[in-house]
Write a structure and sequence with these properties.
about 160 residues, alpha+beta, 7-stranded mixed beta sheet, 5 helices, 7 strands, about 35% helix, about 35% strand, globular
């Protein structure tokens, strides 16, 4: 069973491992740092945001082990965009879908009317996660330059 909760210092090594993973960086937009200091700073920022009650950033845990994270990308008073990552060691087991379901339920309970997520159109696994979480494809699209390529980003939404 997975759980969503704030990130702690105990998660530093696993979180940095996820940040550095080339497979993760193919679909989740992360910077490439030339030293560990950049990744440590990124971890510290995620940890700080996950402990800020005004922000939605959570670690995804299997028992006590961090296996991913879910975070706000943008928000207004009534809508919030989320991004999410599961370590490649744990993908394909429904953990991302469960984390997204838990997040949607929580965010609706605190007053958001729409939760949406985007994915590169080639990221079929993420698209499937959004569909399993009962999100519907919307008309919004973006062209995003990332890692030397232009990607079409498509969006899905859950709203009440």
């Amino acid at each position: 069973m997975i759980d969503l909760r704030p990130i702690t210092d105990l998660d530093k090594e696993l979180m940095i491992e996820i940040f550095k993973n080339e497979e993760v960086k193919e679909t989740y937009m992360l910077p490439d740092y030339s030293s560990d200091e950049g990744y440590i700073n990124l971890f510290e920022n995620f940890k700080k945001l996950s402990n800020d009650t005004r922000r939605y950033v959570r670690g995804i845990y299997l028992g006590d082990k961090l296996i991913g994270f879910i975070n706000e990308v943008e928000k207004t008073e009534e809508s919030i965009e989320l991004g999410y990552v599961i370590s490649p060691l744990y993908k394909g087991r429904g953990f991302a879908t469960r984390a997204l379901d838990l997040s949607i339920n929580y965010l609706l309970s605190i007053g958001y009317k729409e939760i949406f997520c985007g994915a590169f159109e080639t990221n079929l696994a993420s698209i499937r996660v959004m569909e399993k979480a009962e999100m519907k494809k919307i008309l919004k699209t973006d062209r995003i330059e990332y890692r030397g390529k232009t990607h079409k980003c498509i969006y899905y939404s859950y709203h009440i």
